[in-house]
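new request in #modeling-help
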Amino acid sequence: MSGIPNAIKSWYFAERPKGDLDDTTLALRTVPLPELADGEILVRNIYLSLDATNRVWLSDWDSYMEPVRLGEPMRGFIIGEVVHSKNAQFPKGALVSGLSSWSDYVVTNGEGFQTYTGIAGLDLAEAFGILTVAGPTAYVGLVEIGQPKPGDTVVVTAAAGAVGALVGQIAKIYGCRAIGIAGSAEKCAWLTRELGYDAAINYRTEDVDKRLAELAPDGIDIQFENVGGDILDSGLKHMKNGGRVIICGLISTYNSPGETAPGPKMFRNVIMRRLRIEGFVILDYLARYPEFHEKLLGWMRDGRLKYRLHVVDGLENAAGALKLLYTGGNHGKLMVKIGDPRA
Amino acid sequence: MSGIPNAIKSWYFAERPKGDLDDTTLALRTVPLPELADGEILVRNIYLSLDATNRVWLSDWDSYMEPVRLGEPMRGFIIGEVVHSKNAQFPKGALVSGLSSWSDYVVTNGEGFQTYTGIAGLDLAEAFGILTVAGPTAYVGLVEIGQPKPGDTVVVTAAAGAVGALVGQIAKIYGCRAIGIAGSAEKCAWLTRELGYDAAINYRTEDVDKRLAELAPDGIDIQFENVGGDILDSGLKHMKNGGRVIICGLISTYNSPGETAPGPKMFRNVIMRRLRIEGFVILDYLARYPEFHEKLLGWMRDGRLKYRLHVVDGLENAAGALKLLYTGGNHGKLMVKIGDPRA
């Protein structure tokens, strides 16, 4: 049958990293294509989303979901085209997305997959890159958990990342002041000149603590935390009474094995400033995605929500690309183009 | 005039402690009684409340309120009798309570003071000891911030302390399971045999982490934290998804100067378990005290809220008594009897 491969190429979890990801963590292997059972579909993957939480799945911690086991294909969100189907719900030619694996093709019974029927005005990469993880994460974290009010000062860490870039813009839509923390002058300029952030701090060249004192002299109402470690410590120092610290990610600690990551030094400010620190996992909110997408798409179409995609070409480059998230080497939403977007 | 002294004896903040309180931190001094100005009253103090947060007031951190300054009288909640009045709101003979100083007499314009008219069935020590700080703190923390539901597993640290003893009993009233952590076999026995705690862990002789795994195999819904440090770390390991960590006190860290107290090691569980960590200060809730007192008094009269008072006799013993809070040497609500309760 034309378009059906003989084999499937995937990245496998080969060796648990002790700290930073290294070249032996994941290994690209090819296995023969299995026969499709009734109810299964074969998906030709087009895009793979790379997310900071991927590192968590490779740890042996007790986490928010089962880790990837050694010897299994690496897990990731993908969107692709059904090229063979024994499941009437997902006919041949349909575009489908779901939490799957880092592979050129996947065989699945479709559990947890959604059909994608296109969104006017967005190409496939934009829709997948912004609406699968980053957009809903930014919305739920800032709006539902952070409860922003007009005039609030919102600090966003990893502000030039896929989620952070959106958070600052949503903060502005809600009438807040947005201060971004990012890792280069180029990123900081992008935040203030393109995205409408009121100010940006380059944590590699500036004293974050001192700059926060200058930029938020009355304190921070909401800290949207993607990083943890020293950056979070600085934020905790400058929180206002009744402030909210939204823990979306702690990327600076994900490479620390076991319980070795130090906790926030200024933890006592939870009392002194009457703080609420709250974490969340976007997978808990999948049922509410239509509601979030409606909001996000409205803003995207009005030009109030800008973004950039960092698309790495070729499945074979996925493992190398993932490291960019932990060094700050990506510029915008990081994803891998595995196959031709056009069927 | 009879009953009016010539001088006032007070504990003064003499030397900032570097870590633990020591004998030179506070010093007892006598100053001449000033002339009362219009609007002022002279109060003969009867009881002084000693509270874990007293140590915070002696630090130079940025805290939830102004610290006590070196050379000033030490701050504390007192109840006493008006023995001379130039303020019609507080006539001679009235009992008044408020945030004042560690003194045998105080001169005040009455700002922040309340008149105490007696509560049926409670003697002055009980009313002052339970309703001034400990009771409202336990109620607000557990009920308003913790939002307990029937069947929830509630872990209380410093469970035999003034606040903790009440928290477990209120948890039981709300249909929860209560597990207490305390520092002696005697305290643990008191928790389970007298107060109705379902279980107690002696942190000095037992492995808290292991015991929590046994006693809360499905995880902790609410951790009511008075201690911090290793005890909090153990709790964070065993939190259930969506759990709430109420930060009432971090007494184990109050003797650590500046930013040296280590943060919670298992902080990443804020994400992994989708936790809400929330701190509060009872002084923010003074306007709602009548509502809390009604609840607490109802339970006290029904015999559902037991407590014990640890009353140290004599103002001159106040500084020594305060240290008991940081070594776990007190048994129940710690307070100092400064003068005769009977007018």
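bot summary: The mean pLDDT of chain A is 95.
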